[in-house]
Amino acid sequence: MLKKSLELLRQEAAESGSHTLKRSLGPLNLIAIGVGVIIGAGLFSLTGIAAANHTGPAVTLSFVVAAVGCAFSALCYAEFASMVPVAGSAYTYSYATMGELFAWIIGWDLVLEYSVGAATVAISWSQYLGKFLSKYGIHLPPQLMMSPWETATQADGSTVSGLINLPAVLVVLAITAIIVRGTQGSAWFNAIVVALKVSVVLVFIALGWQYIDPANYQPYIPANTGTFGEFGWSGILRGAGVVFFVFIGFDIVATMAQEAKNPQRNMPIGIIGSLLVCTVLFVLFGYVMTGLANYTEFKNSAAPVAIAIEKTPYGWLSTAIIGAILIGYTSVILVDLLGQSRVFFSMSRDGLLPKVFAQVHPKFQTPLKSNLLLGLFISLFAGFVPIHVVGEMCSIGTLLAFVMVCVGVLIMRKREPNAPRAFRTPWVPVVPILGIVTCLVMMFSLPGDTWLRLFAWLAIGLVIYFAYGKKNSKLGQGQLVKTAVEPAGNTVA
Predict the structure, then answer these.
(1) Coiled coil where (predicted)?
(2) Fewer Cβ within 10 Å of end Cβ, the chain: N or C?
(3) How far apart are CA 195 and CA 483, in angstroms?
(4) Residue 97 to residues 2, 17, 71, 213, 406, Cα–Cα distance (Å)
């Protein structure tokens, strides 16, 4: 239960040497990183899944509920990011507020969040690739486009089972090769594709609006089937829990704090700015998509936008948007991989994971070995797990991280009320408490098997912590000579 002091964290952020990341990101870079990952699989794939299975046209209300929960958490993230500009996001914040064990739990949870986040996008990328190539008469074997747990019905009525989602595997490996060469180059690449993705969303909204069929909105909130989460108001809550996945972009911005210029000022701008931009776009996008096509048509589809576009006369728009989505998805995978490797970097630097993951490449100044290992792991995840499973797992992992950050703000306001804060969460304790309640409601609205997967993942993490991390913790061994505070208030050197 040892905790890191704020002074120790600030000294770690300021230190230089072989375990230091290069500061190269300005406020616009950070907003672009946030927008780059927010506008992705959640918008172009999970929106349709949520509408078909839980909300109907009221998926727009699910976005509003999720955005409100995000806003509370984003304000708390912004305060922490301005206080402790260190890589690691919620992991680092938990280390300062609740102790090493909780930090490990949330760090391990973030590994899950970013892993399944990147895998979800890669799977959806594969689906859109298949549609894009089919327009040119190229049909990839369906066995190589699905996980072993999925089936597809052929034109002749026969059923084919998947072997591996090969395109999803290959795109993860390709993006890993890009990010190992440096954060600044990755940021420029991300900024270009983000501009393209925002343009695609705006074009879809503008052109699709005039072809909305009002009949598709009847009823706007379909009646509940008698099962919690299947339409009705409970469906809106469950839909919010599913589409909450799309808002993890500002969370990933927080992991980049140690690579940001003037992080005390720029981190809050990046976190809150990316959330505001995307929330408006999401509501409009969901409204147009469910107006173009009936929500039942999106069932079991990872490419619902393609279905909606078919309802318009713009044949060229379908090809152009799918092509732009393919390019844009790469930025989502890129940012997820960046965020996850930075969490591994922080945990390894603290001794909780093998030190190889804290090694920075002398030329590229990136955690090369972390990137390679995680890229391999995520590529296998994308190749062998269905999209609805990874999407729900990512949502519950994200929500748990947000709860911990909101709790952390309450603790730090009590323990160190006078600590320097470049940004202060307004209306404390109301905002953190509302963030906790909103996130917990959405967590409990998710299916029971999602909770089982989360508990299984955390159980694996606890085994690793007590077998390795606890024994090798630099804070526990007294290797960190700067000030650290125990729960009882005693000081260790």
Answers:
(1) none
(2) C
(3) 44
(4) 10, 27, 21, 51, 11
Q: Report residue 178 as tokens.
A: 């890009």
CB 85 within 8 A of CB 258: yes
Count of alpha carbons within 13 angstroms of residue 376, beta-carbon side: 5
- Against a cut of 0.85, is the pTM above it? no
Pair 172, 336: CB distance under 8 Å:
no
Residue pair 2/484 in contact by the 8 Å Cβ criterion: yes
- Assigned token pair, 287: 């409204």
Domain limits, the chain? 3-468
* d(C-alpha 65, C-alpha 62), whole Å: 5
Measure the CA–CA gap between 142 and 140, rounded to whole angstroms.
6
Q: Which residue has the tokens 């930090």?
A: 103
pLDDT tens digits, 185-239: 566 777 787 788 788 889 889 999 999 999 999 999 999 999 988 999 999 988 9
Query: Which amino acid would we find at residue 136?
Result: Y
For residues 256 and 29, the answer to whether their CB atoms sit within 8 Å is no
Question: Closest Cα to residue 334, out of 276, 374, 385?
Answer: 374
| Alpha carbons 154 and 487: distance in angstroms, whole number | 61
Q: How does pLDDT run across 350-376, given as a tens digit for each residue? A: 899 988 888 887 777 778 888 888 889
CATH number, domain 3-468: 1.20.1740.10
- Residue 55 DSSP one-character state: I
Distance CA 216, CA 104 (A): 47
Give 479: exposed, middle or buried? Use CB within 10 Å, 0-12, 13-18, 19+. exposed
